[in-house]
Every structure is written in C-alpha cells, then in structure tokens.
Amino acid sequence: MKTVLITGTSKGIGLETAFAFGRAGYKVFATMRNPENASVFKQKIKEESLDITISKMDVDSDSSVKQCTDALLDQHGAIDVLVNNAGIERHGAIEEMSMDDFQAIMNTNYLGVIRCTKAMLPQMRKNKKGCIINIASVSGHIANSPLGGYAASKHALEAISEALAQEVKPFNIKVAIVEPGIINTQMASDIAVDGQSIYPHSKRFAGLFAASLQTPTPPTLVAEKILEVAESNSWKLRHPVGPDAEPFILWRASMTDEQWVDWNACSDEEWYMAVEQDFGLNARPMEHQAKH
C-alpha cells in the first residue's frame, strides 16, 4: 500500500486531499497543528472506513516536524508521497503590514516546506523513489497588492521547488508544483476590507475575490489534481489548477512589467472598469454586499 504525508489538513485543500488519497487506497498521514479540533474529520474517516491517521505537526517548528516525521518513519518505514500543503495568508499594503506578519508567512509557506522536505528526503533518496508535491499558487507568478507578502512566499516556494527538482531527479524523486487560482476556501473569503488602509488595493481585491466566488471553484478540484500528479508518470513540474489559473498567468505574461504596475496603480474607477472589461467581473464591493 502506498503512503502519503499531507500537511495542513484541518480544512480546505489539505482536508480534501487527505480524503482523495484515502479513497484512492493510500495509507494517509494527515498532519495539522490542532488534531483535537478535528472531530468532524475523524467522524468522516470512520464513516468511510478510510486508512487515515491524524498526527500533530506544526510546520513552523523544527522540533515539531522532526518529532512527527521521525515517529511516522519509525513506525511505517518509507513515505512514498509528500504533499506540502500547509499555508497561511496575510494581506495588506507593505507599509502597513507588520514584520510579524511577513515573518509568519515566510516561516509557514516557505521554510515549513523546506523543513518537511528535508525530513523526508533521506529515506526517499535511499529508496530511489518518491514524489514531493508543493502547493504554491498563481501568486507564485503574479505579484500584486495587497498580496505582496503572500506572493513573495509563493515566489520563493516556486524557486526552491525548481532547484529541488534538479537535485533529486537523479534519485528518481519527482517534484511537482501545483498552482491553484481562486478556490472557494476560507482563505479566499478572508481577503477582507478593514476600511483603514490609505491604499485602495485591499478593498479592490476583496471585491474581485467576492465576484469570482459567485461561481466558486471547490477545493476538491485541487485535491483531484494533486492525486493525479502523484499517480502520473509525468515529470511535468508546474500544474496550474482551476478555471482562472492558467488564464491569469498568461494574462500577466502578456503585459510588460510597466503595464502591470500601471494596471495596479490606476484609479479605482479605471481599475474596476478594466476588471469588468478583462474578466467580465463586477468587482465593486457594494454590488456583492447587496447580493448577500
């Protein structure tokens, strides 16, 4: 039986990924910071008779990652697939975000992946097989306010994944990057407006996300892609997922850097009109407040 270790499984993409692998017959090690809060998850595992074990692991902590992975490897030998999914989002203008927020994002989204990867690599390398799937984002290609700090962490993740793929392919270890677009998760719903910023971008993006989520893309779509990547013989590195992911990446690539800066720096009215013209979305926040 194949084994998979998945980080950040308390909700959203990580939770659905644990179910996808469990239903596909894998022995799943689902990790999260607070397993005591996973009663609904545990109930569903029982109902479906899935081979899913929930373990406590905080990817921000060297000792927590070591303790959890050492115990799993001691008990079960090899892990075939590692899914680095744990991630957090903080948003705001760069001037206004705290240094604590910047550090938290990088510690989870970038260093957390490195901690877990380093813990798994020795046994994968020794066994000459393995698959590491890192959950990045369209924000790994596109940097814009108010997601500058988040995008920086995902750009870093893209870069380290690309370098890692080069190092471990000779040992028959596959590395893949999954890049979701706007997915219907709590994280996407939390691009909220605080009303205090002197910069307009948080308010604009709250409207854009709300408009996009009117026709939501479920996290199960990403989970299915992650399972497909793990099962595939392809060595393809990057996998955009969701109806808007590839279009967003191509749209950004079609502009010069200067055009991109101008697009994000224009007045509110120009920006809302451009979003309507480019994507057919009405991102004006009041429209969505009226609908709910």
TrEMBL record:
SUPFAM superfamilies to which the protein is assigned, alphabetical: NAD(P)-binding Rossmann-fold domains (SSF51735)
Segments passing through the bilayer: none
PROSITE patterns, per the entry: ADH_SHORT
Domain of life: Bacteria
Coiled-coil region list: none
PANTHER family: SHORT CHAIN DEHYDROGENASE (PTHR43976), SHORT-CHAIN DEHYDROGENASE_REDUCTASE FAMILY PROTEIN (PTHR43976:SF16)
This protein's name: SDR family oxidoreductase
Species in which this protein is naturally found: Maribacter polysiphoniae
